[in-house]
Amino acid sequence: MKNPYAYREKEREELILRYLPLVKSIAFTIKRHIPPTIDVRDLIGHGILGLIKALEKLDTQRNPESYLKIRVRGAIYDYLRSLDFGSRRIREKEKRIKEALRELTEKLGREPTDEEIAEHLGEKIDTLQHDLSRISFSYILNLEDIFTEERRGYEEVISSREADVEEDVVKKDLVEKLRKAIDKLDEREKLVIQLVFYEELPLKHVAEILNCSISRVSQIKGEAIEKLRRLMKDY
After folding, report:
1. Which residue among 20, 104, 153, 178 is least crowded, i.e. fewest CB within 10 A of its CB?
2. What does the angle CA 59 – CA 62 – CA 63 come to, to the nearest 5 degrees?
3. CA atoms within 13 A on the CB side of 25
4. Whole-prediction pTM value?
């Protein structure tokens, strides 16, 4: 007689191998937005843990791959939250960068470069860019939290089989309110949100497209997300 437990274990191992490329893809995408000191192998490891946990409920999901993406990304985000991207030191550094941007813009009559900002702050450009990566990713986590209720992202709710007619109406209303909130952003903020969150481009590439400093892109993104948070709370 075959051991049903051994069969389930074999099936789980096959699923892990099948979805491992998905975990790696998500990990490398997130890696583009965080400081280089964080090893992508750690992201993959935590993503795999999220995948294993998600497999337990995979057969109850209407959209399995979407469900796995959300759970894997969520596990990696939880790990990054544990590294305290929103620490007091980072928030204080963000204020200093904003103040440097304001002072140098007034002095130079144009937006300063990252090198000029680093010199103004009395630090190396590598240090500035490292901190900008941490600041930037802290806002990505904030945007994720806009739709989090008991650690369930709105995309996960959308893909659930447990939704009834009333919940479907609520979800559609939420998506419509987000669209309206984004419409209230100015054009540059909309572009940054589009390039960072939908196209998933690193800040450096966004800065090249906008022809401005990485510091300025980080500032625009932070302001846009704070606006979205306020607007969604109002809704």
Report:
1. 20
2. 100
3. 8
4. 0.63
